[in-house]
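Q: What would this complex look like in 3D?
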Amino acid sequence: MRRRVSIFGSTGSIGCNTVDLLRHQGGVESFDVIALTGGARVDLLARQARELEAEIAVTAYPEHLKTLRQALEGTGIKAAAGPEAIAEAAARETDWTMSAIGGCAGLEPGLISLKHGGILALANKESLVTAGPLMLATAQKYGATILPVDSEHSAIFQALVGEDISNVTRMILTASGGPFRNWSHAQLAAATPEQAVAHPNWDMGKMISVDSASMFNKALEMIEAKEFYQVDPKIIEVIIHPQSVVHSMIGHVDGTLMAHMGVPDMRFAIGYALNWPKRRSLPIKNLDLAALGALEFEAPDEQRFPPLRLAREVMMAGGLSGAVFNAAKETAYGAFMARQIGFLDMAALVEQVLSAEIDLCDLKSTTIDLETVLSVDQQVRIKTAEAVKLRQAS
Amino acid sequence: MRRRVSIFGSTGSIGCNTVDLLRHQGGVESFDVIALTGGARVDLLARQARELEAEIAVTAYPEHLKTLRQALEGTGIKAAAGPEAIAEAAARETDWTMSAIGGCAGLEPGLISLKHGGILALANKESLVTAGPLMLATAQKYGATILPVDSEHSAIFQALVGEDISNVTRMILTASGGPFRNWSHAQLAAATPEQAVAHPNWDMGKMISVDSASMFNKALEMIEAKEFYQVDPKIIEVIIHPQSVVHSMIGHVDGTLMAHMGVPDMRFAIGYALNWPKRRSLPIKNLDLAALGALEFEAPDEQRFPPLRLAREVMMAGGLSGAVFNAAKETAYGAFMARQIGFLDMAALVEQVLSAEIDLCDLKSTTIDLETVLSVDQQVRIKTAEAVKLRQAS
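A: Here is my prediction, written as structure tokens for the whole assembly.
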């Protein structure tokens, strides 16, 4: 059975791994590739589009359209650029869509894709963090299925197969601890962007690597888990596990922990979403626990990594607080990468913005539409940027 | 819904834990206890029978019948003794039966219980090892369900919930390694019964503790896994995991390992079998991985622990070779406990008997009936006892 497939964020880490798996499972022999979208790496995007015989390739940046068009000349593959073209690409009917654009920009194409009533493989964390209720309601309305592609959420999803979620008493997200796991407060305060982007176990984009070093990534995942599985925030735990071999765990009412394990390779989660509800062979090495010797675990230090504590506040507040949290975080990330603020200032800024916004009553609204989310996102980015300036001035 | 329940081997470790869970789930308010059977601990058996208002209590030993009868005087609970009384008790209709008599003696009551078409919670390893095809065929014939109660097999069973076993490529049994995990060959040769019965993690009966020290226990479990899940012996692995927190693992075709974890407490497996297909709250502590710190794994050493190698031979030979293996092992165990042979002689004797018997063509028969199994069992016990004498004489 041929399937129509699109990949949003095709040239990033998740996107490239998705292309790799499509190739592994027959490429154009098995799939009708509809749309591929990317950012500035238009040469790569064009190569992927040629190989997979895509209908359309879209770059997010209009300044790269010319290069993309040239690279696709004579192929019959349509080239386009900009957010509206991405939205238009998302409106093209598919059976399976990968949502892997990073940041808040990934929300809209995912939402549009849900309207096809197929499968949305969701790697974009911000969709659930900023607009969980909207994503779930849209999926339900159109009969679509959201499959999580984050390694933690895929692990939880897989561990839940055949189980009754109402008996789940623990949802334990593992965290590698990132490159700064054992760093002191003083060292963290002096951490540079170069140090923060170097992740020990996973090969990922820059923002997610920095988020991993600061634990903002895990904070997003806590909120995602709460939104996706609709569970009590109290059952969501985080445990540091430097080897990244236990991808996450589910605890049941009878004391059972079911752990999903494997080598650290994102393709396990992408491949699961691609083949769900079946499992098929994937080009992933078997885990050799004896060769590994030991799996280590430790409690996270919320003093050094305050995003975990902030995530709890966001989960309890609900509504639009996830959108506030994410916009503040993305803005603070930009300021850190531009060396306007220090590493620890990111969490301090987010906390400051969050506590200023969290009591606003419209945050607690449960009817969230895309416009409201994007408007909150814009406002919070402006407020956070102002807070960055004040902090620089002081 | 009240259920009729019997426990075979009620006064052993598994039996007592089963009684504990029946008590935890309402005792006589929830269950109609039909039969309880035990060995020499008739006081305990009588206490259990009184508390659970059993119909009948049976001791395996006629010499203890008088004491049992006295302890039950005035209760209306019937007392009986001997293997035939146990078989008669097994014939009493139940919905759920615990088969926890140790050794080959547990085979017959389990087989009889399957005829009620209910659930057989199977803790007796020998049933599947010596007569796997007979157990499965009987269950199928009468519409009964066998639920494994060994911690490893329950873990595998639970990890398989909702999954397709034809996609399973690894079945990894964890082994604590027992008290002799790091002992040298010379130390093992000199090991005493007192040293062998002291298991670091699990509180069990004597024979199973010695089997755990020698890895005969794991060998039985390998054979059990092959028989119960009807898988290729090649996918069955053993890994040493001293903390006994990962109870076992399943590997799927896509590289996923699904691991069942929890504190080492047999009640997880008994409780699962009691509540299946649901999970209910059990009086078991949550696992605190951070407090534990690390889970260690190492490859087993088949030089020091030859039963693992022997298990592979048995799995490949099939037929009645499991019955030969078990009878030789039980006889060798008796000789070791009587200080007639050394610790390592147990495996050497079993290998000797096995290789003498394994080529007999009737071993490969797949139509196994109880009579044949018991007859092979008897013959092999005699042959092994002779081999013990020869070894002592030499």
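A: To summarize the key features: Chain A is about 45% helix and 15% strand. The radius of gyration of chain A is 20 Å.
Q: Very helpful, thank you.
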